[in-house]
Amino acid sequence: MFDSGILEVLFASHSNPQNENRHRVIREAGLNLAQVIVSNAPSSADASSAIRHVRNAVMEANAAIACEVPLLEVEEAILNTEEKAAEPEATTEAEDPTIQTGDEE
Is the alpha carbon torsion for 57, 61, 67, 68 positive or negative? Predict the structure, then answer.
């Protein structure tokens, strides 16, 4: 289904002290936006959803830093996997007698 190399990157531990500042900046920006939402939007399902989206955006951004895998590579790997899964398997004459090989007279 998924290329094992991509899965290993996505599910590996990505602790890197060099990236701590980048992660912190993103978390602080997310916290700031969440505080702005809480301060200005009425308490509602939409406000709760907005906070969840900010949280998800922070997690995704930090995952992008941690994995250091360009998004296009991951998307291409997923698309290739989906295309392979959608391709019909080749059928041989032995499996399907209606296939003509050109050897018939």
Answer: positive
Overall pTM surpassing 0.70 (yes/no): no
Q: How far is CA 101 from CA 33, 87, 89, 93, in A?
A: 66, 21, 17, 7
Q: Within a domain: residue 91? A: no
Closest CA to 26 of 53, 52, 60, 49: 60
**Is 99 contained in some domain?**
no
Question: Does the residue 79 lie in any domain?
Answer: yes
83: tokens are 């295309």
Q: What is the pLDDT of residue 98?
A: 62
Q: How far, in Å, CA of 58 to CA of 95, rounded?
A: 52
Is 35 a member of any domain? yes
